[in-house]
Design goal:
- This protein is globular.
- The chain has 14 helices and 2 strands; from the N terminus they run H-H-H-H-H-H-H-H-H-H-H-H-H-E-E-H.
- A two-stranded antiparallel sheet has the order 1-2.
- Helix 1 packs across helix 13, helix 2 crosses helix 13 and helix 6 crosses helix 7.
- The protein has one domain.
- Strand 1 and strand 2 form a beta hairpin.
């Protein structure tokens, strides 16, 4: 029910995707300029060292042989060589590295995720009272709280993100080469990745919706969200698996078969779907009535029973 209602609300509020696309486009342009300016000295250094040509050779070799184990071994050697070049010239490029880290953090980690709270605010108006909120007005109104929320979210969720990266990396290192083994490696890697991301969704997807719906502070909302997640863990996790699977399948499918043009729609839609999922979980698990569309209202059984008892009281 959570997954199905999330899909319905996603399509009912698809106009938010276009506003999200505009915002992400601006963030992408600014971050692209920042990354280019910060990495230009490092790129020139790698060109002089011949490592850019090595990247091209490794990619060509993988496309030809499809030897995944060899690809990861070559990539590990290349990363070690790049690291040695960077360390050997750190005195001349340290400022570029600091600027690059700052740009990635501000634009990728912080700015691109600000839309999640804005989505939740707009969805709260829709689900609670069938009204539409101004997207960019909500963006400005919640900016201060939103930035604090994103900084806390990044710090709290960082360990599980590092765990996901580490597990996926070691899985790639442990399995050998060959086409059949490469297929099993990719399959096992994808399944593990989906499960781990679904676990992250289960734990943290309700954090920001709790801030919006319950109007609590950042850390009180985290405690409430975790309590809700553990109380309904099996149900939320099962639906999170479906949400993560759909998000990655749709992005991969439209990315490959539209030469990445489809990602212009699927990436903003993925942000919205993540927000919708968290909002539906909070509304549903808190026993709150909410609109799916103009014709359908979800009323939990507990809420229905409560309303009937109130009506009986007046009859008596």
């Amino acid at each position: 029910m959570i997954f199905k209602n999330s899909l319905k609300i996603l399509f009912s509020n698809f106009n938010i995707v276009w506003k999200t696309l505009l915002y992400l486009f601006v963030v992408f342009l600014l971050s692209a300029v920042g990354v280019y300016l910060s990495l230009k000295p490092i790129y020139d250094l790698l060109v002089l060292s011949g490592l850019i040509d090595s990247i091209s050779e490794i990619y060509t070799s993988f496309i030809t042989s499809l030897n995944l184990a060899q690809f990861f071994m070559s990539s590990s050697d290349l990363i070690a060589s790049i690291w040695m070049v960077i360390v050997g010239n750190i005195s001349s490029i340290w400022f570029s590295i600091v600027c690059f880290v700052f740009v990635v953090f501000v634009f990728k980690v912080l700015a691109s995720n600000l839309i999640i709270m804005v989505n939740c605010e707009c969805l709260h108006y829709y689900m609670g009272s069938m009204n539409r909120a101004s997207y960019f007005h909500e963006f400005g109104a919640t900016l201060g709280k939103n930035i604090r929320m994103q900084l806390c979210y990044y710090l709290v969720s960082l360990p599980i993100k590092l765990l996901i990266v580490a597990i996926c990396y070691f899985e790639c290192m442990l399995i050998g080469g060959g086409l059949l083994q490469a297929i099993f490696t990719v399959f096992f890697l994808v399944v593990s990745f989906v499960i781990l991301v679904a676990l992250k969704y289960t734990l943290f997807a309700t954090w920001m919706p709790t801030v919006v719906v319950m109007n609590y502070g950042v850390f009180k909302s985290l405690g409430k969200a975790l309590k809700l997640s553990f109380r309904k863990f099996g149900r939320i996790f099962a639906n999170a698996l479906g949400v993560v699977s759909v998000i990655y399948f749709v992005n991969v499918f439209f990315g490959l078969f539209t030469f990445f043009a489809g990602l212009l729609i699927t990436i903003p839609a993925s942000y919205l779907f993540y927000s919708v999922f968290g909002m539906v979980v909070v509304y549903d698990c808190q026993g709150m009535r909410y609109y799916v569309d103009v014709y359908n209202v979800v009323s939990p059984a507990k809420k229905e029973k409560s309303d009937k008892l109130k009506q009986m009281k007046y009859i008596v």
